[in-house]
């Protein structure tokens, strides 16, 4: 498993939950395998196995925490990797806690950053938090999800409590974080409040008496701080589970809106379907592992079918339909497949935007920009150069084309269409 160098500190070692020999029941073994599916790391696995076993024997669910700072209101499939894991644990019968970091958002998480992150206002936090949970509920069972805000206990700490909490951790250990180390060596400013962030996130685990905390690989340091603080407060230390960061549509960079390689979970069904279909046949298996709810046995069967000669496209269609059905409906998934097939044959989708423009005759570059099919005239002309522009099905090859008044359908690339009335 890949280990994230940024978060290589505080020690993951610690006193085991129990020192008795570990003999797991079949049910606990199955739960452990489900938990481990697709994870980057599970620390400490033997401790978590004991927690699972004890939960089965006592009937007391584990407390499983995911903390999210509502820094942006829109989620993409990359965000859902950790939410999928929460849902799996929820379906195993455990209590999942969706912790909204309204207090920590005012500090700003410095993870992976080389500059101080500007804190959010209370209004921004509250607005983002509403949207965040509404979107997360497309994955989690909202009725069985406990929603908490860390201002509940963080606001009550006060100055004395913050000083007492800060006394439990040394500056040297905080500076072991790679992002802090780099900034310190480079002489880049590090504000004192940033050093408090890992402590405040760790204190959340104390306040919630967490058994397991989830996060991305970039959160490993913060998760381990929680484990250490729980020991200081006399609690059984939580285990930590880190999930990989999902690559975007390019198969290289992590999924990100700023990089334009994302699939938003509130995007139209047809767009979502087409984007899933655009990933490579190799990347498809990574998406299956991290995004699909199909069993490992079913995925292994799919791989065997492809190795036996089946077209990978058929397997990718199943993935695209599963994802669209999750965030829209089964009917939307069927319609999206029909739309995708229609486009593949050169057909025009039913639901394309219609608009009226004036200024005929107009240059093709300006036309594509005004029709919102390209962000700029230079990008529009580049698409013409590449043969990616069609008017009523005919490829446009002349960058100097002046389009006369008429009504026509413009297509840019495989997925962008508009019916334009030009006057």
Automatic annotation (TrEMBL):
One of its GO terms (biological process) is tyrosyl-tRNA aminoacylation. This is Tyrosine--tRNA ligase. ATP binds at residue 257. HAMAP family: Tyr_tRNA_synth_type2. Keywords: Aminoacyl-tRNA synthetase, ATP-binding, Cytoplasm, Ligase, Nucleotide-binding, Protein biosynthesis, RNA-binding. CDD domains: S4, TyrRS_core. GO terms for cellular component: cytosol. It catalyses: tRNA(Tyr) + L-tyrosine + ATP = L-tyrosyl-tRNA(Tyr) + AMP + diphosphate + H(+). Residues 1-12 have a biased composition (Polar residues). It is an enzyme of class 6 (ligase). InterPro entries: aa-tRNA-synth_I_CS (IPR001412), aa-tRNA-synth_Ic (IPR002305), Rossmann-like_a/b/a_fold (IPR014729), S4_RNA-bd (IPR002942), S4_RNA-bd_sf (IPR036986), Tyr-tRNA-ligase (IPR002307), Tyr-tRNA-ligase_bac-type (IPR024088), Tyr-tRNA-ligase_bac_2 (IPR024108). Pfam families: S4, tRNA-synt_1b.
């Amino acid at each position: 498993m890949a280990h994230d160098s940024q978060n290589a500190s505080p020690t993951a070692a610690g006193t085991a939950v129990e020192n008795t020999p570990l003999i797991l029941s079949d049910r606990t073994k199955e739960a452990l395998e489900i938990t481990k599916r697709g994870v980057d790391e599970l620390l400490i696995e033997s401790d978590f196995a004991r927690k699972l076993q004890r939960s089965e024997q006592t009937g007391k669910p584990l407390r499983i925490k995911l903390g999210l700072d509502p820094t942006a209101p829109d989620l993409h499939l990359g965000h859902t990797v950790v939410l999928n894991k929460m849902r799996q644990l929820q379906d195993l019968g455990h209590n999942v806690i969706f912790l909204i970091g309204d207090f920590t958002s005012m500090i700003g998480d410095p993870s992976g950053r080389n500059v101080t992150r500007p804190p959010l206002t209370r209004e921004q936090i509250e607005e983002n938090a509403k949207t965040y949970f509404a979107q997360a509920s497309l994955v989690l069972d909202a009725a069985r999800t406990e929603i908490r805000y860390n201002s509940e206990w963080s606001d009550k700490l006060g100055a004395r409590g913050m000083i007492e909490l800060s006394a439990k951790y040394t500056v040297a250990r905080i500076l072991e974080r790679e992002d802090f180390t780099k900034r310190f060596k480079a002489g880049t400013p590090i504000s004192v409040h940033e050093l408090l962030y890992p402590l405040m996130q760790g204190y959340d685990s104390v306040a919630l008496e967490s058994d397991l905390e989830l996060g991305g690989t970039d959160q490993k340091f913060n998760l381990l701080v929680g484990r250490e603080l729980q020991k200081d407060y006399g609690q059984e230390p939580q285990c930590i589970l880190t999930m990989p960061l999902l690559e975007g549509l390019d198969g290289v960079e992590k999924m990100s809106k700023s990089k334009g390689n994302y699939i938003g979970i509130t995007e139209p069904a047809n767009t979502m379907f087409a984007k899933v279909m655009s990933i490579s046949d190799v990347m498809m298996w990574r998406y299956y592992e991290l995004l699909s709810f199909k069993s490992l046995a079913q995925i292994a069967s799919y791989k065997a079918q492809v190795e036996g000669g089946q077209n990978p496209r058929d397997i990718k269609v199943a993935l695209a339909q599963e994802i669209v059905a999750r965030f829209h409906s089964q009917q939307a998934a069927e319609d999206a497949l029909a739309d995708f097939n229609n486009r593949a044959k050169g057909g025009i989708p039913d639901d394309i935007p219609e608009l009226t423009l004036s200024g005929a005759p107009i240059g093709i570059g300006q036309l594509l920009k005004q029709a919102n099919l390209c962000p700029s005239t230079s990008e529009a002309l580049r698409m013409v150069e590449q043969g990616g522009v069609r008017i009523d099905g005919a490829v446009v090859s002349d960058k100097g084309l002046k389009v006369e008044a008429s009504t026509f359908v413009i297509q840019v690339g495989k997925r962008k269409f508009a019916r334009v009335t030009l006057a």
